[in-house]
HotDog domain-containing protein (Podospora australis), 168 residues
Amino acid sequence: MGTKLPVQRFVRSVLKSFMAESGLEPRLFGPHLRVTSASKGVVNMELDIVKDHTNRLKIIHGGTIASLTDLGGSLAVASEGLYATGVSTDLNVTYLKSGGKVGDKLSIRAECDKIGKTLAYTKVTFTNGGGELVARGSHTKYVQQAWTASDGPSYVTPEGAEIADEVD
């Protein structure tokens, strides 16, 4: 059996797994993304915007925000106690204004609005350094197999999984 963790450390451990096992997240976000807080159903993150996150206009690329919506929705599901976070069935992003340029910090808040036996519904909001809402997303996840892979919301990492440090 794995290790039972407090919510924030559990979510950080799930993020660490994404960074170790995925092809996209470590290349796109690397050390520039961090979980600043997490509680049941809510995850707050920050992204330090670097050139790799921007488009030819030198502002954050919409694809970066869409990828953060995907990852944020997954981490919101993890904040409900599931290490396996399911697969995407729907993802939507509305861009309201520029999210920033190189050197700026983007704040991300991901919330799990509802989690059932089959689907989880999440929303992700993005604010700039001035606290202005710059984008909002929604992400629906198929979680039936994630439930099957666990014994319910346990905040337990799988045996052998890397566990995030308590303090960054």
